[in-house]
Every structure is written in C-alpha cells, then in structure tokens.
C-alpha cells in the first residue's frame, strides 16, 4: 500500500495539485493498480539483456537547420499563447528578487 | 439518395459518372449528422461551411473534365487529438479547451492532397487515455447499436461516427488498442498500422513508443485505400519508416489468396476471462476460415498475461514526460494569476484543474514508475517483459503467417460499468495491448453479433504486412456476407 505522503510527493514531482479527497482516491487506485502490477515479478527476465530490448525504429540524424517560417505562421503560434503583450509571450516571474 | 453505405470507390465512381455531386454527398452526411448526432454525440467540432466549399471545388473540377483523385469529395471525421489547421484540437481535455491547431498533421496534409473532406473532429478519452470515451472532459459518446452502452475508446467518437453513418471514414489513434477496440464495439473496421508506418507529426503525443494513427472504415477495402494514402516516411517524424517494398506473403499474387495462409490461434486469447459468446463467435469464424481451406494451428503466446502491467507502466511513464509540456504558457489553458501564487504553485493549480482524473492517475503512475528507487522494479522490468512479449510473436510468425483472436473480452459494456474501478477498465485492453507492444499491424473486422452487439475478430500480421491482413479481412467480410444471405 502506497502512503498518502508518497502520493503527495509524486503529485509534487508531477506538478499536479490534488485535493485531500483526490489524495485518498489516488492512494486507493494507485495501490490497487500497483498490487496488480506485482505479477510482473513472476516473469523470467534473467535471459533478457540490456534495457533497450524492443527496437522501435532506427535512430535518425538530421542537420539542425532553422526552417524559415512565414510571418503568418509566427503570428499564429504567438496567438496560441494565452497571455501576450505586443510581440511577446508573457510569463510569470521565474527568479524571485 | 442514401450515400451513407457507399464505399469510397462507389462514391468516386458516382462522382465521375456525374450520378451525383460532391456537394450532395457532403450535404447528405451533414443531414445525417443533424438527424442522429443528438443521440450519438460523436463530434466535438463540426466544420460545415469549409466542407461544402471544398466539395463545390471538387464538383467544379469534375464538370471541367479534370481528373480527380479517388478520395476527392469523400467526407471523413478526425479524432480530436490530430491537428487540422484552423480547427480546435482539444484532445478531449480542459487544458486544451481553447486551443486551435496552427498546422495540419501529415496525415491530414496527405488526405487533403487527395481532396478528401474533413467534416469535423470527434470525441475521445482525454489524451486518448481510456477504453470507453467516458474520460472525455466534454461529452459521452453513445454506441450506435445500443445508446446505453459505450462506443469503446479511446477513438470512440471516430468509430461511432462511421457506424452511425455520420462520416464515410475516420481517423483514430491506437496506442494500446484505441482504434481496434472501438471498431469492434461499433461494428466497423479499424486498423492499427505497423509502428512507424504512418507519420505522427501533428498527433498529440501520449506514448511515443506506441502511438500510431489508423483508419476506421465501413469495410476493409476502404481501410486499405486510406492507409495507402496516409502511410510512408515523413521527414517531420523521425520514427516513421519507408513501407516494405515486397513482403514474404505478397511476393506473388497467388500467395495473396487468404485461404492459403497459415493461421495461428493463440490459446491465451481464449481463456475463461473472455466472455463465452465472444469466444464462440470468434471460434466459429475461425472454423469457417478453416473450411475455406486455410491451415489453422493452435499456438501459444506465453507472456500475454503480462501485457496489461507492462503496457500501463511503459505508456504511463512516457505520458508523464509527454504531458509535461502543458504549462499554460505557450498554448492551452491559461496559467492561473495571483500575486501570492509562485510559478511552482501556479503550475500545480493549472495542471490540477486542467487534467481529468484518469490523466492525473496515469501521470502519477508514470512519475512513480520512473522515480528514484522504483525505476528498475517497474520501468526497466516492464521494458524487459516487453521484449519477451515481442519474442512470443517472433516465434509464432516463424510458423504462421497471421494470428486470429478476439479484439475485446466482452461486447460493448454499459456506461458507468467500469468507471469506479480503473483497473477493471485497464483489463478491457488485455487482447489489444500485446500487438501494440510488439509494434505489429492488427486489423479489427466485424465477424458476428452477441445479441444486438457487434463482435470483432482481430488479425495480427507481421511487421509491414498490412496488405496480407487486408486480404484476410476481405475474406472474413465475404464469409460474413455469405452467412447473412442464407
């Protein structure tokens, strides 16, 4: 069983605020799910080497080139931001004084 | 005229022979939407004006005697986690409620080049996380066969739209069964392509080692037509691959006769946990395939039981990273204001309010599985077991050409049946997750009914062998229609 403190710690790592009811529900749900996942321990993985077992596609490389975009595209991307001022996207203060 | 049950080729033929116009086709679909949408609730956005003007342009070109592509004027619906420029793209989430796509996904570019026409965007479980569409932040889509039941998920809106005649075809996305399971629940055809076969540029990322876009259609021929348009390597998706030029099963046309295939039937997919009627329906179909002259072998995929924990650990881990981008700054819901609110607390509040409970659960699960001290026990172990699941398939495909199995353990279930218990909901993916984990193509085709509810059969093929599973799907369609005619 995962503790409420653990739930709150993970929620902080995940940047999610949970109400006290949500913490309780999450504790119950995650515990049940993780208990079920215990069955993975029964799988014999002794012969599986390394961690990147399933190769999904090849690694591909490309030059890091700036793709020119039309002013319209730039404007639309800026417009998608919920808070802006002039040509800028407005963000909260990151460093405190 | 009723256009709702016409195939893509029949629509095309009718257009070029001027039996009807593209405008009539598109308008008839909107009439159908008007008639049934209140009950089905498949769509989140409808784009009528633009669709009709595109249809008029197709008609104009036809009247001038120009050649138009096969998909010209064919109306389709798009799962609301695939970007269509100018239309909202919410992923079924409050956090993207006001987001409008600023570019087209590659699949949309390709379909627009063929002049297929977008009717609107369809409902889904929030960020494609769910198996019933009940996790959508906006509405519950109903199963057209029984309105008290779910359409499946996460591409439930896309499957219900096609089944209800509201679109000729639709696009869905399949991470751990999200195209195949709703297709089975709604009695339509759904393809999960080989991992990398279709570009994911413009698909809102959930689990990047698993996500694939696939078509949902009324029949196998249409699925092949749409797949052939959307497949292919894309510079904008580094995981996309060039289609295999020639595959073992398609080397010569004679071999393409599905009845000459060797089929494997995995015993683990017919366990007691699977609904008896579903098992019997699929078994009966397999028997009929055998009667057509195909070789049927019982096989074993011994690590099937580990599919659910393995899938949910890996996909939740990847989701916890992919969904970190929702910070309320560049797009989507606005980060909350407040003088006393630090940036850190503002993030917490934004994401706490913006994400629904299932999305939070998955992000939490993934964060836990990747956190210090647990990484080896969960994520690393799940990756290794994923290797074992893939190995099962590799071994099976040495003996057989394709695998036949049920799609879902039950027909469509009722609303609320599994919402109180997330684990029960996860277990409904038990038969679709393994092919996803192994990156294999799989097709869901309607094969029977359990009462009034459709039951699908799943055809899993070798990587890159979509053409082979399409041929098998067509054979199954023939068998089904032969039986219906008796």
Keywords:
heterodimer; A: 97 residues; mainly alpha; Histone, subunit A; two-stranded antiparallel sheet; 3 helices; 2 strands; 38% helix; flat; B: 486 residues; alpha/beta; Amidase signature (AS) enzymes; 2 domains; eleven-stranded mixed β-sheet; 15 helices
Could you describe the 3D structure shown?
- The complex is a heterodimer of chains A (97) and B (486).
- Chain A is mainly alpha-helical and 97 residues long.
- Chain A has a domain at 4-42: Histone, subunit A.
- Chain A has three helices and two strands, in the order H-H-H-E-E.
- The longest helix of chain A has 18 residues, at 20-37.
- The two termini of chain A are 42 Å apart.
- The model of chain A has no long low-confidence stretch (mean pLDDT 88).
- Chain B has 486 residues and is α/β, with parallel strands linked by helices.
- Chain B folds into two domains: 8-230, Amidase signature (AS) domain (Amidase signature (AS) enzymes, Alpha-Beta Complex); 252-308 and 377-465, Amidase signature (AS) enzymes.
- An eleven-stranded mixed β-sheet of chain B has the order 1-3-2-4-6-5-10-11-9-7-8, sandwiched between helices.
- Chain B is globular, with a radius of gyration of 22 Å.
- The model of chain B has no long low-confidence stretch (mean pLDDT 95).
- The interface between A and B is large, with 52 and 70 residues.
Enumerate the spans of chain A where pLDDT stays under 50 for 5 or more consecutive residues: none
Low-pLDDT ranges of chain B: none
Strand order of the largest sheet of chain B: 1-3-2-4-6-5-10-11-9-7-8
What is the CATH architecture assignment of the largest domain in chain B?
Alpha-Beta Complex
Determine Rg of chain A (CA atoms, Å): 23 Å
Sheet/helix structural class of chain B: alpha/beta
The level-1 CATH class of the largest domain in chain B: Alpha Beta
Would you give the CATH topology of the largest domain in chain B? Amidase signature (AS) enzymes
In what range is the share of β-strand residues of chain A?
A: under 5%
Number of strands of chain A: 2
Largest sheet data of chain A: 2 strands, antiparallel
Name the CATH superfamily classification of the domain at 4-42 in chain A.
Glu-tRNAGln amidotransferase C subunit, N-terminal domain
Termini separation of chain B comes to 27 Å
Q: Count of DSSP helices of chain A?
A: 3
Mean pLDDT of chain A: 88
* Run of helices and strands of chain B: HHEHEHEHEHEEHEHEHHHHEHHEEH
CATH-defined fold name of the domain at 4-42 in chain A: Histone, subunit A
> What is the CA–CA distance across the termini of chain A?
42 Å
């Amino acid at each position: 069983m995962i503790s409420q403190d653990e739930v709150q710690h993970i929620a902080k790592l995940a940047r999610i605020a949970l109400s006290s009811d949500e913490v309780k529900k999450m504790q119950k749900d995650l515990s049940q799910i993780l208990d079920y996942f215990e069955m993975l321990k029964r799988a014999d993985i002794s012969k599986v080497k390394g961690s990147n077992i399933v190769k999904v596609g090849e690694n591909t490389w490309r030059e890091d080139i700036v793709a020119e975009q039309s002013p319209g595209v730039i404007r639309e991307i800026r417009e998608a931001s919920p808070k802006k001022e002039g040509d800028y996207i407005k963000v909260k203060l990151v460093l405190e004084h | 005229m009723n256009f709702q049950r016409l195939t893509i080729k029949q629509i095309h033929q009718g257009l070029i022979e001027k039996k009807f116009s593209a405008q009539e086709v598109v308008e008839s679909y909107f009439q159908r939407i008007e008639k049934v949408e209140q009950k089905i609730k498949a769509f989140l956005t409808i784009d009528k004006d633009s669709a009709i003007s595109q249809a008029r342009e197709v008609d104009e070109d036809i009247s001038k005697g120009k050649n138009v592509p096969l998909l010209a004027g064919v109306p389709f619906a798009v799962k609301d986690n695939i970007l269509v420029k100018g239309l909202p793209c919410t992923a079924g989430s409050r956090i993207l409620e006001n987001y409008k796509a600023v570019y087209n996904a590659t699949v949309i570019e390709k379909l627009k080049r063929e002049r297929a026409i977008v009717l609107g965007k369809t409902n889904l479980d929030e960020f494609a996380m769910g198996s019933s569409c009940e996790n959508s932040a906006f509405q519950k889509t109903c199963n057209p066969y029984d309105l008290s039941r779910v359409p499946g998920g996460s591409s439930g809106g896309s499957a219900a739209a096609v089944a209800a005649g509201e679109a000729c075809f639709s696009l869905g996305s399949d991470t751990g069964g999200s195209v195949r399971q709703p297709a089975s629940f709604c009695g339509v055809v759904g393809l999960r392509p080989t991992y990398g076969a279709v570009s994911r540029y413009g698909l809102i990322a959930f689990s990047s080692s698993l996500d694939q876009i696939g078509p949902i259609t009324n029949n196998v021929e249409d699925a092949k037509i749409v797949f052939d348009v959307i497949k292919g390597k894309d510079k904008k998706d580094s995981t996309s691959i060039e289609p295999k030029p020639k595959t073992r099963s398609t080397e010569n046309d004679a071999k393409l006769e599905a009845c000459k295939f060797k089929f494997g039937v995995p015993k683990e997919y017919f366990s007691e946990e699977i609904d008896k009627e579903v098992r019997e329906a699929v078994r009966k179909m397999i028997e009929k395939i055998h009667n057509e002259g195909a070789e049927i072998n019982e096989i074993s995929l011994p690590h099937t039981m580990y599919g659910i924990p393995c899938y949910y650990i890996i996909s939740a881990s990847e989701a916890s990273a992919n969904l970190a981008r929702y910070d309320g700054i560049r797009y989507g819901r606005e980060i909350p204001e407040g003088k006393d609110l630090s940036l850190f607390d503002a993030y917490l509040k934004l994401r706490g309010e913006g994400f629904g409970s299932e999305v939070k659960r998955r992000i939490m699960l993934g964060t836990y599985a990747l956190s210090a001290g647990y990484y080896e026990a969960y994520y690393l172990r799940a990756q290794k077991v994923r290797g074992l699941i893939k190995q099962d398939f590799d071994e099976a495909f040495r003996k057989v050409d394709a695998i036949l199995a049920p799609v879902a353990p039950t027909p469509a279930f009722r609303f609320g049946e599994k919402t109180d218990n997330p684990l029960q909901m996860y277990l409904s993916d038990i038969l679709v997750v393994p092919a996803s984990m192994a990156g294999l193509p799989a097709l869901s085709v309607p094969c029977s009914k359990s009462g009034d509810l459709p039951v699908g059969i799943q055809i899993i093929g070798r990587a890159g062998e979509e053409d082979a599973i399409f041929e098998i799907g067509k054979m199954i369609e023939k068998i089904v229609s032969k039986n219906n005619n008796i």
